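Contributing new records

If you add data, match the layout below exactly. Sequence lines come first and carry their own label; structure lines follow with theirs. Keep one chain per record. Anything else will be rejected by the validation script.
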Amino acid sequence: MQIMWLFLGLAAALVAFGVAWRLASRRWSLPCPALLAWSLENPIAQRFNGTKVILDRLDLRPGQTVLELGPGPGRLLIPAAKLVGRDGEAVGIEVQPAMAERLKRRANQAGVTNLKVILGDATEPHVPEASFDLVFLCAALGEIPDRIAALRQGFRALKPGGVLSVSEMFGDPHYQSRTVVQRLAEDVGFRLQSVRGGWWLFTADFVKP
């Protein structure tokens, strides 16, 4: 009986923490805490959070170089690294040390050797200019206080003709609408290529001219 009450108390504490984070995120741009990383990488949760749909929309090919801003525990970046293969490279820029370490550990456990994790702010230059075929964000743009600065770094990192792919899920507390995403991307020089999906889970792709 005591074990059951302990389990229920722990579950209630986690739920309360998650709710508090979501409420706070509506006022401030807060990244998903490393403590909640399990909710992103859980196989059951991934059936409902659009992981496969978003990966399909990225249209990844062997040999590509890809960069994710705000990869968290790597629910997209790790499979992306597998899809681009040994001749490609996947890089993630993650601002939270605990999340970056979790991503490295999960990549090692998955046997992925072409994935690099950079600890840093996505609004700062961390990668060579014009070195990536694809830059993508998933439910991360709203977590960055200076969204324009982050998109400028994405623009800088892409090769001419490269693609910026932004995916947003309505259930995320930092949800950015299609109109907002398009305005921000075009403000830094991107050209809209396509929008797939509905308002509840859309992916907007932009081209660097």
